[in-house]
Amino acid sequence: MDELKRLLFSSRSVVVLSGAGMSTESGIPDFRSPTGVWQDEDLMESMSDGYLKRHPEEFWPKFKLGFMSEEYLSAKPNPGHLALADLEKMGKDIAIYTQNVDGLHQEAGSRHVYELHGSIKTAYCPRCRSEYGLEYILSEEVPRCHWMNPKGQECDTILFPDTVLFGQNVRHYEYAAISVQQCDLMLVLGTSLTVYPVADLPEYVRRDKTKLAIVNLDETDFDSKADVVIHGKVGEVLSQAVKF
Ligand code: APR
Question: Is 70 a domain residue?
């Protein structure tokens, strides 16, 4: 913990890579722990680009079950999210690349958040590209596009979520890789580092310039390459670590 404190205090630029373990203390389950979302294998197989395009009517109730449940929608930022926002308020140059789609980093006050796997907060029409917000998405079991053409005909196409599904491209990846190469400290928080290409991001750490710190309940494949590894709860560890 003292070494993490020292690295956080002495680093000017910090790049964070966060995963589902960042939000479990907010009541949102992760994916691969024994109580994770992917224990439901049917749900996991349905969260793909191919399934959405082949079965959009069946996709949406499953997507809402997994990612728009009451525990998701009522979740609030936890001390881990708040500690990262505090680091920014202290004047640290901090960029957060998150695999999470829950928007909790932004809600905690962090201003430089890049959603590598998109967000549950919006959806779009694949036909006319109209954008829709969360309230509308929740108002219909299978949300459709209500855009009207000049003849008064409704588009009526089933919307697609702005969440990155299996088989779709991750967002901001190149920018994330460059940021990792240029920062003083890369902080990996609450991720199993098992889904590529995001899991490759710690490989971009330049050993002559950047330190790597990992805070995760379970071991990761990058633990041996990290300067600091803490197997603990992100919320507890970070809230302690930022008290300089
Ligand atoms: N504090 C620290 N670590 C935690 C906590 C916590 N409070 N809770 C869980 N963890 C750890 C778990 O031990 C696990 O190693 O967080 C990690 C979460 O790993 P995953 O469930 O695999 O989630 P994640 O790494 O974010 O998955 C990446 O996979 O299926 C896709 O799109 C999905 O974005 C997700 C991606």
Answer: no
